[in-house]
Design a protein that fits this description.
By secondary structure, the protein is an alpha/beta fold. It is globular and about 45 Å long. Helix content is 45%, strand content 13%. Helix 6 crosses helix 9 and helix 7 packs across helix 8. The N terminus is likely disordered. The relative contact order is 0.17. Strands 3-2-1-4-5 form a five-stranded mixed sheet, with helices on both faces.
Length: 247
């Protein structure tokens, strides 16, 4: 994991490129559900943003509940989507190329998107991100983890739409829940968090990554303790980040 110099530019890692990543899927189980759409958006100060999107035929039925969220039906995916293996391979290659250039991956609830991507890569007998890199995946920046850590006493939900409202971020004309629009909103939310907490940009990428690992574990431990007090059953939140520990 890199540690881009924060001393010479004055803006730290925020003065360099960021690559945003998001998926829309058939559901929320990273071990069984499939990627339907994905987007990568590269932003660098002083340059126009560049983006790439994928529509994938997941090879299974897309549940109506999922289609109602992201708008992709089984019929549409079968008619217009790419085969999963080559698309997933391309997505993984682009993420790995960015990480090798010390460009952080920015993803909202990153553990979900990275976990389901690696599960999909395994499903299609393709190397995972870690296998391609030869080491753990990073640096990763997750606005959800940062917001929970930096504004612990703000109550209420912290979905991407909630943070857009809180930070005054306007999503695209079609609203959230298309992968490319969600990535743009995620990058804008991150910029707002950094503006509110400028010290974040003074830390190098390795420090920010480690901070989020600890911050997520603290949040998950607290959340799971609350669940137990309320009598909820089940595993609760994974304490691992930026991957779920079940993958």
């Amino acid at each position: 994991m890199g540690s881009r110099d924060t001393g010479s530019s004055g803006g730290g890692w925020t003065s360099g490129p960021l690559i945003g990543f998001d998926t829309e899927t058939t559901g929320v189980d990273v071990t069984t559900d499939r990627v339907v759409t994905a987007a990568l958006v590269l932003r660098a100060p002083g340059r126009p943003a560049s983006s790439r999107t994928w529509l994938i035929d997941p090879g299974v039925e897309i549940p109506a509940e999922a289609a109602a969220i992201h708008g992709i039906t089984t019929a549409h995916a079968r008619a217009h989507g790419s085969a999963p293996a080559p698309a997933l391979d391309e997505i993984a290659d682009e993420i790995v190329a960015a990480l090798r250039a010390d460009t952080p991956v920015v993803a909202y609830n990153a553990a979900f998107d990275l976990s389901i991507l690696d599960a999909e890569l395994r499903r299609h007998a393709l190397p995972t991100l870690r296998e391609r890199l030869g080491h753990e995946v990073g640096p990763v920046i997750d606005p959800l983890v940062l917001d929970r850590a930096l504004v612990r006493k703000r109550y209420g939900k912290r979905r991407l739409g909630d943070l857009c409202l809180h930070y005054g971020v306007t999503a695209g004309a079609g609203g959230l829940h298309s992968a490319d629009v969600d990535v743009e909103a995620t990058l804008d939310v991150l910029a707002a968090i950094v503006a509110d907490h400028p010290w974040v940009s003074t830390k190098d990428l390795a420090e920010i990554h480690r901070f989020q690992v600890g911050a997520h574990r603290t949040w998950a431990d607290d959340f799971n303790a609350w669940r137990r007090r309320q009598g909820f059953e089940g595993a609760g939140a994974s304490t691992a980040w930026p991957y779920y520990d079940l993958v």
